[in-house]
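>> received
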Amino acid sequence: MDKKICIISQAIFPADQPRAFRATELAKELARKGYDVVLYAVLGVFDYSSFEKEFNIKVKNIGKMWFATLNSDNNERRNFIDKVLGKLLHRLIEYPNIEFMFRMPGILRKEKNIYLLISSAHPHPIHWGCAAARSFFQKKFPQIWIADCGDPYMGNKFFKKKPLFYFRYLEEWFCAKADYITIPIEGAKDGYYPKFHDKVKIIPQGFQFNDIDINTCPPNNQVPTFAYAGVFYKGFRDPSIFLQYLTTIKRPFKFIIYTQNQSIIKPYLSLLYGRIEVRQYIPRNELLKILSNMDFLINIENGTLVHSPSKLIDYAIAKRPILSFSPDVVPRTAFEEFLNGNYAQQFVVKDVDQYRIESIAERFISLMKNMETPSEDYF
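>> returned
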């Protein structure tokens, strides 16, 4: 195969975030299938020479970012000026990520003979920049463009304040320009404008199962030990009520939390001293090994069908029982049963094999093959 595929993401391996996993694993699998793959991201100091050689992928830098602060090394600049400008300009112009919009046309003009472009959001200005590139030089633009979205933009329920009204025009613009819009779950379709629903295709998060090392024996913890891994959101995926409930439990237990935003749980650290442990993110394969040694795993639901945490797939791969519940109501009976080793009320992730990266890559390839002649009905 000589078709060239270009994937653009804010971050890739070794960054520990769902969008980075998505872009990296997809690039690796498409390259395994014989495609010429170019992978763009904001890079740091990590040396990709061995990675490129092992997986036959060209890794290229989006370039030095003046405002956007996150790179693929998991480093994020957050100085005083960044914080001030973020508060002043984020809702007005999507600062600092608006910078991506202006970087995309230059990259796509420079990168020749792309057959398929896959742009990855968050951040959505990556899509906006690709739409601008298609407007500026349509004849030289990739033949097919798939806009891959983790979450919607205007329809994102996790925003503390809804984006200002004029961003609707940018979202409609990129949706009209893209050939396909891929989203991870069916429920997220309602986060996009109905007139574009025919372009929306469901392609879940994909994972490489072959390289995973997990514990397959029953855990042997001295006290009931359970874990949560991921982001918290005040008012949505909020652990406050659950943590307050844990302070009433008299028996010993160990609750391990992997997260970067500790402000929500900080008030409970002293109240649960010795029974709660907060850790920083670690590489995904290391995390899966640790999760597989837990007695059970905690999932705090989003309270909206538009969003579904990809952690549920990791939990299923770790093969430990999952206690899933709304942030507003603690399932006291189920939790006490879990503490006693009774997992009858566990949440079950159905058809885990559908999340294998081999299947996910095939879905992208199918979209590409179905698009024999890309539409020219753009505005």
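>> The chain is about 30% helix and 15% strand.
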